Amino acid sequence: MELSERKKKILKSVIDSYIRTGEPVGSKLLTGTADLQVSSATIRNEMSELERMGFLEQPHASAGRVPTAEGYRTYVNGLMEQYLLSLEELKVLNEVFNYKVSEIERLMESASHAISEMTNYTSFSVIRPSGRNAQRFETLYIDEHSFLLIMICTDGSIRNRHVKVRMSVDPEMLKTVADALNATMSGVCSEDVTLQSVLEFEELLGTHSGIAATVLRVIYDMLNSTDSEKVHIDGVTKLLSYPEFSDVEKAKDAIALFEDRRDFAQKIMSRSNDEKGLTVHFGEADLPDAGIVLQPIIINGKTVGAIGVMGPKRMNYKKVIASLQYFVDNVGKQFEGEIKNEQEHGKKPE
Amino acid sequence: MELSERKKKILKSVIDSYIRTGEPVGSKLLTGTADLQVSSATIRNEMSELERMGFLEQPHASAGRVPTAEGYRTYVNGLMEQYLLSLEELKVLNEVFNYKVSEIERLMESASHAISEMTNYTSFSVIRPSGRNAQRFETLYIDEHSFLLIMICTDGSIRNRHVKVRMSVDPEMLKTVADALNATMSGVCSEDVTLQSVLEFEELLGTHSGIAATVLRVIYDMLNSTDSEKVHIDGVTKLLSYPEFSDVEKAKDAIALFEDRRDFAQKIMSRSNDEKGLTVHFGEADLPDAGIVLQPIIINGKTVGAIGVMGPKRMNYKKVIASLQYFVDNVGKQFEGEIKNEQEHGKKPE
DNA sequence: TTTAGCACTTGCTCTCTACGAGTGCTAATA
DNA sequence: TATTAGCACTCGTAGAGAGCAAGTGCTAAA
User: Fold this and answer.
1) How distant, in Å, are the alpha carbons of B232, B252, B254, B312 from that of B246?
2) Bridge partners of A232?
3) What is the mean pLDDT of chain B?
4) Mutate to test the interface with A, among B100, B101, B102 (most CBs of A within 10 A)
5) Percent of chain B having pLDDT more than 90?
6) Listed residue (A288, A268, A289, A287) closest to A279, CA to CA
7) Which of A126, A231, B27, B139 is packed most tightly, with the most Cβ within 10 A?
8) pLDDT score of B202
9) Which nucleotides of C are covered by protein (CB under 7 A)?
10) Quick one: CA dihedral B182, B186, B192, B197, positive or negative?
């Protein structure tokens, strides 16, 4: 069922207008618009057909039309024109990159903040947790009663804890601890820790075995510390400015999505994992009036996280998509083959 | 202006009832209550006087009475009876402690979650950032192209970054780097880094000076990384269930408080720093309908953070205060002189 | 195929009324 | 003198009805 040019024009106009005003769009309103040189009656007929085809719907009999999810989808997939970020907007987005932050986490947080401000919707970023198998352990002497226990994981990520103990420690003893750990615990994940490995570890410590329990406890904690998804959310209250959420119940539903961050992250990641590019979701997740634009962040072929925007279903997709795309393009440039641009990074701190 | 026993009783009954129902309390409603063996007319007279004294007010002429901030204050400061946590509730709170987490941060997060669930209000925890003067630096070899750069701060806190470089590194070279850093950068905070120290540092690196820029950049980042307050917030949506926030604008104001976490943390800490114990705030911070109960967490004499509850001004202070107090008492037991209970900690991971 | 015209539907806003809750005051009572 | 019953009064709320505006679908003419 291909749409005629005129139907496309009308659908686009309806959605553009609805996005702008939030009011159902009537036939009369469109007569003035754009290059539609037909009367309201004609438009009415077309709209009625668009309704029959599932692109539009009426909130009630005597109201104008409102896009359906299907309508939005076709709009996003081709009807809408491209949004050109203004110089102002580019400046804001570039600032995120200029203030060179080394970690992608921070970078995404700033971007998310900037995008939320720019678009006036809620924006979020999620960083996927990395695996948690210990590969190697190191210890570092801090002072007589404390040391740093460092765990290097198989995926290259690093975790550490500052361990405080009553007995006194010294660098040499700590070396023994690290060696013993590496001999017995390397490669384990939380479930792999067996009684045997524990006993072996204690044995290897020899005279220092008094510290074993504390160390084991810390390691257990580190392995288990569900190095959870890192979630940042920006501009939640912005949602509440839109009439879609002016009912507290609706507002509650929307905000509840962000309430449990871990849960939210998992939802987001499960939608991002298989995707290579930007996706748009209309009225999902018990939020019939919300839309979500989701952009996975892929670095060196791995999906490391996602950044996205949530707004009313009638949000300004053009602008949101343009912003997210601009961000992800540049994040790619900055992080792909991270090691290469050491020189560039190497500016003096001012 | 001392309150007569009967006035106290009436004030208490009014507030109890208002907290329970959220409805303005009329004189008739109280006749049945408690040990008030007087007619509604008498109560009416008393209430009218309580209003004149500033403890009660009327939303409008023909409505019942509602407590003022002053009314709540006297209520909290003595009128209300103590709340006894139920076995159920104690169990929930104890679970927080039983699942021994080493870091206070996590502990407070769990507690905040538990308290939010128990009370059905929003609960939050804030951990104060620690100072950020570098005291000592360490490096740790990870692999040929990366190492861990560790910064030990004057207050004993530790920060580190995983640094990736293009050139190849080895443990010995990293030792040189650490030594050079310690010689030139020890004791600095972000503003202290001078051109001179940078030059000195580069000189000390000798043949390895190629790495200087990267290292400096990371250190600059670490020093500046506003190791911000760690904020956890739980149950924001719960607020929206109360009629006080059924208006979206009010809801927005309430939620906005939590929007900028750093800002929120600072507000909270500025209210907690000088306090030794629990404080209650009624209708502050542009939130005329909200109440906040704040409990600073003090360990070894230092205010390390705070935990609190925000609810409608007519929240169940008894219960909230009891829960917070129970938590803080036990946190004290667990963390005061942390090092002492090494044995106790030393249970085997199961 | 398009358009003008018109009857019809529906939600919204305004006004009016009735009602109920609660008060303050007055006069009677213990 | 403190308390109470009684009553007029105030005010907010809920509901009914009227009028209005927006927008539709249908019909008949261009």
Assistant:
1) 24, 10, 11, 11
2) A125
3) 84
4) B102
5) 39
6) A268
7) A126
8) 85
9) 2-5, 8-11, 20-26
10) negative
Average pLDDT over residues B47-75: 92
Cβ atoms < 10 Å from Cβ of A128: 20
- How far apart CA B136 and CA B138 sit, in angstroms, is 7
CA distance to A327, B12, B52, B73, B149, per residue, from B65 (Å): 55, 12, 12, 16, 63
Contact B126, B306 (CB under 8 A): yes
pLDDT digits (tens, 9 = 90+) for B313-325: 999 999 999 999 9
Structure confidence at residue B345 (pLDDT): 37
* Segments in chain A forming alpha helices (H): 5-21, 27-31, 40-52, 69-74, 87-98, 104-119, 171-185, 195-205, 212-224, 236-239, 248-259, 261-272, 317-335, 342-345
Higher pLDDT, B244 or B195: B244
**B307: how many CB neighbours lie within 10 A of its CB?**
29
Counting every residue written for chain A, the total comes to 350
Neighbours of B37 (CB within 10 A): 7
For residue B273, give both structure tokens: 């720093």
Round to whole Å and give the CA distance between B213 and B209. 8
d(CA B75, CA B282): 12
| Residue B146 vs residues B44, B171, B215, B331: alpha-carbon distances, Å | 77, 11, 11, 39
> How do the residues of chain A divide into helix, strand and coil, expressed in percent and rounded to 5?
50, 20, 30
- Nearest chain B residue to A235 by CA distance is B259
Nearest chain B Cα to A141, which residue? B138
Averaged over B89-113, what is the pLDDT? Answer: 83
DSSP 8-state class, residue A161: E
CB atoms within 10 A of CB A129: 17
> Do B80 and B72 form a contact (C-beta atoms < 8 A)?
no
Q: Which residue is nearest to nucleotide C5 (CA to C1')?
A: A41
* Residue from A234, A240, A241 whose CB has the most chain B CBs within 10 Å, to mutate: A240
Name the nt closest to A64 by C-alpha to C1': D23
C1' (C26) to CA (B46) span, angstroms: 17
Burial (CB count <10 Å: 0-12, 13-18, 19+), residue B1: exposed
Tell me the two tokens of residue A173: 């003893």
Task: Please indicate if any CB of chain B lies within 8 Å of the CB of A299.
Answer: no
Q: Is A25 exposed, middle or buried (0-12, 13-18, 19+ CB in 10 A)?
A: buried
| Cβ atoms within 10 Å of A260's Cβ, excluding its own | 14
Q: What is the pLDDT of residue B162?
A: 80
**CB of B235 less than 8 A from some CB of A:** yes
Mean pLDDT by 10 residues, chain A (350 residues): 82 93 88 76 90 91 91 94 94 82 79 96 90 78 84 73 84 88 78 78 83 82 71 94 88 92 90 89 87 92 92 96 95 63 36
To the question of pTM greater than 0.85 for the whole model, the response is no
Task: Please give the Cα distance from B106 to B339 (Å, whole number).
Answer: 18
Tell me how many degrees the CA angle A195-A197-A198 measures, rounded to the nearest 5.
65
Strand order in the sheet with A158-164: A134-143, A146-153, A158-164
B64, two tokens: 């019942």
Q: Indicate the pairing of strand B230-234 with strand A279-282.
A: unpaired
